[in-house]
């Protein structure tokens, strides 16, 4: 498969192993600007390892990985400057407010945005005004996700990596989150979303890639003649998992 070399996320023929245990074995995957790809696969298929390799935390044994043209294995800090990453359990500070958390996380990325820009982003992320200055202790997972996505919105980076962002969210919060992702896509961000939530993936992704035996075994498009049928994919995915 040939991928445009300008794609912000580019993985070609990637092999990753932990000791003598191969996890990724010839994985090829690209996400272009303004596109959302959902990465599915059974437990242990290597989805988080794929994200970790893009972030430069896990080294490729062979193959090519590039984030905006930068090899995260060789230059992890430079690659991470182009990435906003939402882990499954967002690490935020319970004793700080939503605004303070955003301010602090942005400072870690060497970014300063005033309060006005931060509350604009929190509003865009759907966090209610009364929660802006509340301490995070007591926030639901959906509220914490909104703070994290507000930070990602403010960073305006070309690549967004998400690890199971809708796990534990109720259908309303999931729909809100998917709406936000669509807004992020409109800005031209390349989004790679690891998920077990096929319905959510079908809702928001342009493409679904299913990881099996260390490589992409199925890719299905969201529109055009190859538009995916969620039920058929669900049946196929259950067999794969
Ligand atoms: N740091 C590590 N050291 C050794 N083995 C690891 C490490 N991280 C992951 N693995 C193993 O690599 C395989 C792939 O793990 P990974 O977390 O990437 O899968 P996943 O598709 O994200 O799974 P899940 O859906 O359960 O989150 C698993 O067998 C896991 O046990």
UniProtKB/TrEMBL annotation:
<dbReference type="Pfam" id="PF00005">
    <property type="entry name" value="ABC_tran"/>
</dbReference>
<dbReference type="GO" id="GO:0016887">
    <property type="term" value="F:ATP hydrolysis activity"/>
</dbReference>
<dbReference type="InterPro" id="IPR003593">
    <property type="entry name" value="AAA+_ATPase"/>
</dbReference>
<keyword id="KW-0067">ATP-binding</keyword>
<dbReference type="InterPro" id="IPR027417">
    <property type="entry name" value="P-loop_NTPase"/>
</dbReference>
<dbReference type="InterPro" id="IPR051782">
    <property type="entry name" value="ABC_Transporter_VariousFunc"/>
</dbReference>
<keyword id="KW-0547">Nucleotide-binding</keyword>
<keyword id="KW-0813">Transport</keyword>
<dbReference type="InterPro" id="IPR017871">
    <property type="entry name" value="ABC_transporter-like_CS"/>
</dbReference>
<protein>
    <submittedName>
        <fullName>ABC-2 type transport system ATP-binding protein</fullName>
    </submittedName>
</protein>
<feature type="domain" description="ABC transporter">
    <location>
        <begin position="9"/>
        <end position="238"/>
    </location>
</feature>
<dbReference type="GO" id="GO:0005524">
    <property type="term" value="F:ATP binding"/>
</dbReference>
<dbReference type="InterPro" id="IPR003439">
    <property type="entry name" value="ABC_transporter-like_ATP-bd"/>
</dbReference>
């Amino acid at each position: 498969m040939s991928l445009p070399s300008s794609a912000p996320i580019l993985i070609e023929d990637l092999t990753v192993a932990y000791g003598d245990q191969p996890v990724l074995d010839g994985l090829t995957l690209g996400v272009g600007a303004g596109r959302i790809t959902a990465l599915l696969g059974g437990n242990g298929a290597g989805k988080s390892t794929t994200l970790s390799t893009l972030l430069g935390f896990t080294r490729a044994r062979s193959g090519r990985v590039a984030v905006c043209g930068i090899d995260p294995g060789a230059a992890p800090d430079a690659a991470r400057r182009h990435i906003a990453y939402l882990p499954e359990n967002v690490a935020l500070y319970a004793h700080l407010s939503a605004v303070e958390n955003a301010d602090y996380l942005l400072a870690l990325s060497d970014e300063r945005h005033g309060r006005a820009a931060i509350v604009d982003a929190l509003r865009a992320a759907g966090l209610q005004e009364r929660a802006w200055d509340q301490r995070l202790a007591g926030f639901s997972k959906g509220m914490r996700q909104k703070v994290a996505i507000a930070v990602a919105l403010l960073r305006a980076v070309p690549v967004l990596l998400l690890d199971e962002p809708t796990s534990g969210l109720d259908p309303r919060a999931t729909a809100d989150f998917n709406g936000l992702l669509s807004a992020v896509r409109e800005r031209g961000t390349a989004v790679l979303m690891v998920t077990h939530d096929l319905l959510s993936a079908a809702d928001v992704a342009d493409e679904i890639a299913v990881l099996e035996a260390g490589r992409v075994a199925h890719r299905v498009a969201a529109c055009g003649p190859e538009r995916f049928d969620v039920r058929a994919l669900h049946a196929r995915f259950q067999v794969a998992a």
